[in-house]
Amino acid sequence: MRNVASQVRAGYPEYGVQSALAEVEAVLTDTRNHARQLHDRLHSKGHALKTAAEEYIEVERKSQDLVKKSLLKFVIGPKQLSQRFFDLVKRYSPFDLVKLALQQAKELTLQAKLSRFREDEQIKAYLEMLQHGTLEEQRLAEQQLTLIVNAFDRIARCQMEYAVYGKFGNAKYMEEVHQLAVEARAQLKELGVSEKWYAAEVDLRALYSGSPLDALRYDPYKTDGSVMPTISEQRFAIALGMTHSKYQAWARERYDQIEAGAIAAEAKRKEIALKMAQYNEAIPKPNIEYVQQHLAEKGLFHGEITGEYTPELLQAIEAFQAEFNSSELAKELQHSFGVDGKIDYKLLNLIYLEKGLIEQTPNLFNMCYIPDMLGKSKDTRNGFEKSIDSFKEIGSDMLAASDARFQKAFDSPGDFLNYLTMGIPKGIYDGYVARGEKRNESTYDYIDWLSSGVLSGVHQTFVGAVNPEEAYSKEHWLNSIGLAAMLTSPVKMKPTKPSIPDLNKSSGAFKVNTTTELDKVEGKGIEGTKEARPSEMFINDFALDGQRIAPKNLHRELRKSEIGRETLDLIVENKIRILLDYSKKQGVYGQAFGADKSIVYVANTQSVQKTAQIIIHEVTHNRINSATYTRREEVIAHIREAKHLNPNLSFGEIRNIINQVDRLYPELPYRKE
User: Fold this and answer.
1) Is residue 155 included in any domain, yes or no?
2) Domain that residue 653 falls in
3) What is the C-alpha separation between 233 and 245, in angstroms, rounded?
4) Predicted pLDDT at 359
5) Nearest to 463, CA basis, from 495, 423, 427, 430
6) Which among 253, 206, 286, 243 is positioned nearest to 24, based on CA atoms?
């Protein structure tokens, strides 16, 4: 500061600058003197505290020795300790030291603020009393000096405020401020301060530490008592009006519009802040990062990829939504986004479409794709390469199974026999037990139990060999080998494949005269479900011949569980059309339309069992048919789907389903608002 003052003194010889500089140097000198006094006082207090600490240690040592020597160790109380020790601790505690330092700083502040008036007799007397008076005199001096400083501050603010109102010609507020200044001057007179320091002609505005805008209590453009606005746009208009009379005249005529615009801008800022807080809390970070990356590639977003909402990202998403709404694609898909900057499954679907991960369909924005199923590379292997890989898998499975039996071979005589016989007796026994448990679930299962698995073995092997789900796969070759063995062997033997009925691998129909009851239209019907033909309940849509799932197999699968039978009842009662679609739809198993239609994409579900589960899932959506799509609805659908395989779900399994839904559908609300 001394160097700056020297440079100013050398560069600006004008009288006004030199005079102000002299006052600055005087304040600097006083400040240095006060700082030195404060340092000396703190040093002496620190020395006293150190002395007290040493005495405390000595007293504590003597007290411990006294306790050790006394037979009544637990009778010694505080009164038996040195009273001087307690006095010292009370007087020089850390809290008292901090309090003392604050007091000294306050005294320095008072002295600095009154340095301009230190020649006043009354002020000089109070300052002397503050430095060298008794404790009571110091308290009185501090109280009086504080009142004096506050009175000078009020006058300084009033003069600043008066000047601004004068520039706006606001006589009403000028008069009010003048009266406040008169009251402050009267208080200084009562305190004994000479009038020459605060007379009306004395300019004290330099004492005010704030800006002219901070001094204003009222909006100078108005006269109705409106308080000084805090919105930045309005304050900017007032600041310009202070310095530019032409702008002031222009703004005065349009101030209502300026005020309305400023309020709208402030509301928009608050709305953006609230949106960002809500979106950052509700939308997963990977989804935000994914959208940031895509918009950066499109040149709409130029910020960092952080996985968090920013005003720039919000603006970029809104621009992306608005751009789509005005495109021809929006007209083709008959969809329009609400321009709100929110990342939901519909916005992600649009990005998937732009990246070529999904196909353009009329129902693009009615489906929630699973990201993990998108972008999978197509299998380009030929039949020979697939077959080689399949035989490798078969060999690996055989080695793994053999190794597992060997590891348990010496656990029991049964395990040793199972190892020697390559697991064949155990497989036969397990198959017999499984068929016995399911024999009463349907006519098909009962006949399969009576035939010791011949029915299911022939059925699965034949269908898997003639109409495989995936040509040249491991399952296809196993079924082909089993069928060849049945056709060429002179002895009628069961296939070596486990004989537990597995309709999941069926993709065609194997007719037996015991299941014609499923196709009845009239009569007794199906036990536990309403009367209806499976072929009328499940419609093969876009299916090539030989590549369809037989409706009766789906019907049979659904009848295996209570939830499946309930679903069949719902389909009949509500006349729900179930379409089995074999077209390629990446990332989606099924889709519900309103209360009476569902589509299951069999190319993705593949097995009869999985297809049945998705039917249960989508029929649940049909039955709920809520106007608001929620995660709660998805949880219910997933739980009902899972109950087809396990009717008694544990709490942990239900919790896993809830977590899975939260992960797959984070953009959906949990329940209806």
Assistant:
1) yes
2) 509-673
3) 18
4) 82
5) 495
6) 206
Cβ-based neighbour number of residue 134 at 10 Å? 9
pLDDT digits (tens, 9 = 90+) for 213-232: 999 999 999 999 999 999 98
What letter does residue 541 receive in the DSSP assignment? E
Residues 6+ apart with CB under 8 A from 588: 367, 368, 369, 370, 373, 601, 604
Of 371, 186, 388, the C-alpha closest to 291 is 371
Q: Count the domains in the chain.
A: 5
User: Which structure tokens are listed for 350?
Assistant: 């649009």
81 near 90, Cβ under 8 Å? no
Please give the single-letter amino acid code of residue 580.
L
Cα 104 from Cα 38, distance rounded (Å): 7
Residue 610 lies in a domain: yes
Q: What is the pLDDT of residues 505-544, one digit of tens each?
A: 332 322 223 333 323 323 333 344 455 677 777 877 655 5
Within 8 A by CB and 6+ apart from 175, the residues are: none
| One domain for residues 155 and 198 | yes
Strand 577-581's sheet: what is its strand order? Answer: 538-541, 577-581, 597-601, 590-593
Q: 444 and 335 in one domain?
A: no
Give dist(CA 237, CA 218) in Å, integer.
14
Flag whether 278 is in a domain.
no
Residue 219 located in a structural domain: no
Q: Averaged over 630-653, what is the pLDDT?
A: 87
